[in-house]
Amino acid sequence: MDGWIKKYRKEVESQIWEHPPVYLKIWNWLLYAADYNTGELKTTLGEIAKKISWTDNRQRKTPARATISRALTLFQSMDMIELISERPIVINITNYNSYQGKQEKQSPENNYAKSNHTRKRPDPVVSEILGYWKTVVDSDKTVGKARMYIAIKYKRWKDIETIKEAIDLFKADCEQDPWKKENQMYRGAEWFFHFKIDEYIKRLKAKKASNPSPYREVQDDEFRRQTTSI
Description:
single chain, Arc Repressor Mutant, subunit A, 2 domains, elongated
């Protein structure tokens, strides 16, 4: 691995600096491994874990793949990377040119402002979804990293009403199933938006696909009558 990249002192004021040191090591490796011209790289969780492993007291330490996955999720929520594909993992580094010396006049402050590495105001959409969760499911649990996962899922599904319907469906499941109410409902918003929201949205979409609206059925009947009379 040859060449160089630019690094800014402003990084010590970013969110990534507040996370475990292995996160910064993962981030640096992504920058080093990305294609110089495109800012993209193709990799796997196993490769990243192996590349950033280290020796401590003569023992080789390799982070768990779950740790790598959490770091990538964080980077995506902070708009540091774009996850183009999950299998295989294809990553695009946001604003990669700013690390390559191709924009010599750009200040560190501008770079970090554009790539959203520093703290920013809460997203109103995220706040609305989280508020709905608290109203429908549980207002007492701490939210942890729920905001980060909500932002990621909203970026994927782009439908706030469907996300709310998924929350309603989860609540209904828990009310009907004592086991789910006891073993899942207590886990809170962070767990739900990280692990379960996709499952419930897919269930909703499958249900809607198999049960078209009565209005659509009326339209279809009218169309058939018109085409038959022609």
